[in-house]
What we know:
Blueprint: H1 3-14, H2 18-33, E1 40-45, E2 48-55, E3 62-67, E4 78-81, E5 84-91, E6 100-105, E7 108-113, E8 119-128, E9 136-139, E10 144-147, E11 150-156, E12 169-171, E13 182-187, E14 193-195, E15 198-208, H3 251-254
Antiparallel strand pairs: 1-2, 1-4, 2-3, 3-6, 4-5, 5-6, 7-8, 8-11, 9-10, 11-15, 12-13, 13-15, 14-15
Amino acid sequence: MNPWSTYCSRIEAKGGTRREAEFRREARNLSRKMPGSLAYQSMEIDGVMRNVAVINSDNLNIKTLCSMPGEDLRHGSTVSWMDNHWLITGRDAFNELYTKVTMQQCNYLLKWVSKDGEVIKRWSIVEDGTKYLTGEYGDNEFIMIRGDSRLTLILPRDKETLRLNRDSRFLIDDEGSPNVLAYRLTKPFKLGGSFTGNGVLSFVLTECNTEDTDNLELHIANYYDYFPKPAKPEVEPPILEGHTPQEKPGDSAAKKVWL
């Protein structure tokens, strides 16, 4: 290699322009220094282990992530980290050097049955939508009170969540609650948190009544519309004193003969 070629190779390695040289220098510094930072964490994102920097905020349920130089983080990805599940709810489109996103902690595993008869599970963010309401509605004419609470539901955008619409119902409550509450999707707005085909969906749910087809144990609404309901075991009637096992109470009176 002649001296001119050597000179050109060295210039190209540092960058053809001053901006390119600065960009490559910053990328090398981040790649070298980030693994030694206390913010450097390994977490599972969409089923793949990734190394990122975690930045705390005043809201303990929300974290900011910065990827390694040249790597991308998808908007709407699900994250497993610190024995919790998270959802990437925001992404900075300016990702020339690294990708910066915000993730929020999930608090409920939502389950429903798709139109194809498949049980779908998605980690979601459920928030109170009636902060300034009592959650009850009273009809003075009929003196009746019914539940009137509303929830905000945030889900990752995918082919299954896009199929949800106003006819969708869910059972949402604490796993240990003896009285599970049912909700109906009333506001299927699907454009607020998604960009270029990725992101999250934010729905509004309104409390409704549970139905006979709901599986309260599994927390799945309309479950028995797709799967057979288990048959209840037959209970033998109790045997009263003075009657044989084949004899039912009241049969002895019918067998009396008057002479």
